[in-house]
Design brief:
The complex is a heterodimer of chains A (186) and B (565). Chain A is of the alpha+beta class and 186 residues long. Chain A is built from six helices and nine strands; from the N terminus they run E-H-E-E-H-E-E-H-H-E-E-H-E-E-H. Chain B is 38% helix and 17% strand. Chain B starts with a strand and ends in a 24-residue tail after the last strand. The chains are: A alpha+beta (186), B alpha/beta (565). The interface between A and B is medium-sized, with 24 and 22 residues.
Chain lengths: 186, 565
């Protein structure tokens, strides 16, 4: 079965230690996490992880089921790139003297759509948002000029293209069922 | 009603009582002392059994749970007390056994400081428990305990860990009992897709040679009657996993025996001959399937399970029927046509006869030579009218007693299946006597496994726990020795073992005992054991180089069993 990049979106209750539980699902099965990013979601009290992993479909299905098995996980789904909008961000700390001496550097930054967010006499900070390959391309070209002091990039963040909000529906359905169920008992 | 201010420790006691707990297996220590102090005033309602090692507390809770279906409870201190329960927690996880382990923890202000007897229990147990939670405030106790019992016992059961900080034990709050039957992120029983039942029924109705695999899910779902209704209506023979051995009586005409590596020949051969394979509450463990590349390739496979994560995990299936098998079996029974598969069912006979002639008769009625494990197990089973609870340790004693015991009542086998935990048998059997006080509990152990939990003689002595202990002594770590003989050129690397005088040890603990070395003394000794009021140790000197047969070698094809080696 062919390996490809999958994006897994995990929605969890905001419980301590859950990230290590989720990442353990991967390590135990010898599957590498390419990137991971966590934040709160649009649903109150619910956290969202965006995880990317390079693996085959059979494995990603198993991983998603094992993640969903965790008591505090609401839902987990996997996607291919055509099913999501996704984005990454990178910051470059570069030498200001080099930036001033080498006109090619600002040309490269402009042509990649990067923006300079800080300039002082020692260093400047470039911010670049976009797809993984775009960031890599900017990095490679800046690296050639030898101006980079520091470089950092975020993990992927993603939202689905679907018109259906599965997690909201899941929570609604669960709570309706619970109300109905406890209503019957009284 | 006015609520009253009580400590977290007292709240734990009341919460346990609120959830119907009557028995606790535990061991006190520094950071759980406030809780044991509270327990001191609850001993009229909470029967605390002081074990001699915390691992035994966890296994005893497992034995209690497995025989009764209720959640077992163990109470230990922080640090080493807590880590000693780890094996039991992992064992309960892999065998789906509901237990709640409550461990003391240092106060929250000390957390992360490497304080005395501090260990990151939640971090350690997360991968091996169903849920693991740290109680940091007294007011969290009622909800944490309610969630713990709900999670442990619902859906596919499993172990839950509560890490109880010292400050939460001693501070006071207004207590009100709490019950939980809903956690929004947790779906214990998945919805059954009606189409999946219809599709399964269609396959079964079209089958000429259907075969069912029965697992512990039937016991856990209390689906014994539903299983029989289904099998009998569609006339489907079945094999059982080791944990599912008592899900259907041994004597049932459709029960063709045990599956797997040391199971019976017929069900293993027929797994690779049937046209529709119906797996019920089992998880296609590698000890059942052997080589998955050659497993039931000719069959359409239907899998009934409560855990979505088990579907297509080890074996790809054609139809997955999610849900509690008590419900799904009932639905399925309603949709399958009455059928007769007489010829197919009779075709098992050939393999039964072959196995009986080549293996079973030599094991249960060898007539001469040294005593064999199988004949001891069969004799004990029959002396109990096949009604006893069998608890095993791990190894040859386990496989042979599981094979040669007979089961006529549900929840009659307690064994460490998934983890294969030596030392499990004795404490699990202690727990089982509390879970089913009206039943006879027989613990089969080898000389290796008994010595891993031999300190529990102290617990048995103190509480006069009526465990019937059968020690099958061959002076070897027998199963490993068998594998060394088969796969390592008989190089017996550290499997021969020198044994103590068990009669003297039993005497030291005031436990009645008896040593049997010859066949003719066995029946009388068994009678003595069963007639003894309290605990009894029956040591049987068995053949030193005995073998568990038949056998599918590891990684081998399930239908190609060795009948001799």
């Amino acid at each position: 079965m062919e390996n490809r990049l999958y994006t897994i979106l995990v929605y969890t209750e905001n419980t301590a230690g859950l990230l290590s539980q989720v990442s353990a699902v991967f390590t135990r099965r010898q599957i590498n996490i390419e990137s991971i990013s966590a934040s709160y979601s649009s649903i109150k009290g619910v956290h969202k992880y965006t995880i990317t992993t390079y693996t085959d479909e059979k494995s990603v299905v198993k991983v998603v089921k094992q993640i969903e098995k965790k008591v505090d996980v609401l839902q987990a789904h996997y996607f291919t790139d055509d099913e999501i909008f996704y984005h990454e961000i990178a910051l470059f700390k570069i030498s200001t003297p080099e930036l001033e001496d080498n006109p090619n550097i600002s040309k490269v930054i402009r042509s990649h759509g990067g923006s300079i967010v800080e300039v002082n006499s020692v260093y400047s900070v470039v911010k670049k948002g976009g797809l993984s390959e775009e960031i890599t391309s900017l990095y490679n070209e800046l690296q050639e000029t030898g101006c980079i002091f520091q470089f950092v990039r975020s993990g992927r963040i993603a939202i689905t293209k679907s018109n259906v909000e599965r997690v909201n529906e899941f929570i609604l359905e669960r709570e309706q069922k619970h109300r109905k169920h406890s209503g019957c008992k009284e | 009603m006015e609520t009253e201010f009580i400590t977290g420790a007292e709240a734990l006691m009341r919460s346990l009582e609120h959830h119907g707990v009557t028995t606790i297996f535990g061991y006190p220590g520094g950071s759980i002392m406030p809780t044991f102090d509270a327990l001191y005033d609850h001993t009229d309602r909470l029967n605390h059994i002081l074990v001699r090692h915390e691992q035994a507390a966890a296994h005893a809770a497992e034995g209690y749970a497995r025989v009764s279906g209720k959640t077992g409870v163990c109470l230990v201190t922080s640090g080493p007390g807590a880590t000693n329960t780890i094996t039991g927690i992992a064992d309960a996880m892999i065998d789906s056994t509901p237990i709640v382990v409550i461990a003391g923890q240092v106060g929250t202000s000390f957390l992360g400081s490497d304080a005395f007897q501090e260990v990151d229990l939640v971090g350690i147990t997360q991968p091996i428990s169903k849920w693991s939670y740290q109680i940091r405030r007294a007011e969290d106790v009622p909800l944490a305990v309610a969630k713990a019992f709900y999670i442990a016992g619902s859906g596919r059961p499993g172990p839950v860990v509560l890490d109880f900080t010292k400050n939460a034990q001693v501070s006071k709050f207004q207590y009100k009992p709490v019950s939980v039957d809903f956690i929004r992120s947790y779906v214990p029983v998945p919805e059954t897709e009606p189409n999946s039942v219809a599709e399964a029924a269609r396959l079964i109705n079209a089958a000429k040679h259907p075969f069912a695999l029965v697992g512990q899910g039937v016991e856990l779902g209390n689906a014994h009657q539903e299983l029989k209704d289904f099998l009998e209506k569609a006339d489907i023979p079945c094999g059982t996993t080791m944990l599912g051995l008592s899900a259907i009586e041994s004597s049932h005409r459709l029960n063709k025996g045990m599956l797997g590596m040391h199971g019976n020949l017929g069900p293993n051969v027929k797994t690779n001959e049937c046209d529709v394979l119906i797996a019920i509450g089992m998880r296609f463990d590698d000890r059942v399937t052997g080589n998955t590349e050659t497993y039931a390739k000719q069959a359409k496979i239907i899998h009934l399970d409560i855990a979505p994560s088990e579907i297509n995990k080890n074996i790809n299936v054609d139809v997955a029927v999610l849900g509690n098998c008590k419900d799904t079996l009932r639905q399925l029974a309603g949709m399958v046509y009455p059928a007769r598969h007489t010829e197919w069912i009779e075709s098992f006979k050939k393999y039964e006869d072959e196995e009986y002639y080549k293996v079973i008769s030599k094991e249960i009625s060898p007539g001469e030579g040294p005593l064999k494990m199988g004949e001891v197990a069969r004799a004990v089973s029959e002396a109990n009218g096949n009604k006893a609870v069998l608890v095993t340790d791990v190894g040859q004693n386990q496989l042979l007693s599981a094979r040669y015991f007979k089961y006529s009542q549900k929840r009659s086998i307690i064994t460490s299946g998934g983890l294969g935990t030596m030392g499990f048998g004795l404490p699990a059997a202690m727990g089982a006597t509390y879970g089913a006080p009206e039943r006879t509990v027989c613990a089969f152990m080898g000389d290796g496994g008994l010595q891993m939990s031999i300190q529990e003689f102290g617990t048995i002595m103190e509480h006069r726990i009526p465990v019937k202990m059968i020690l099958l002594n061959n002076n070897y770590l027998g199963n490993v020795r068998q594998w060394q003989a088969m796969f390592f050129n008989r190089r017996y690397s550290f499997t021969p073992m020198m044994n103590p005088d068990y009669m003297k040890i039993a005497e030291g603990y005031g436990i009645e005992s008896c040593l049997v070395e010859t066949r003719k003394d066995l029946p009388e000794a068994i009678n003595r054991m069963l007639n003894a009021k309290g605990p009894f140790l029956l040591e049987v000197r068995v053949i030193d180089e005995g073998k568990v047969l038949p056998m599918t070698p590891p990684g081998g094809t399930v239908s190609e069993m060795l009948l001799d080696c």
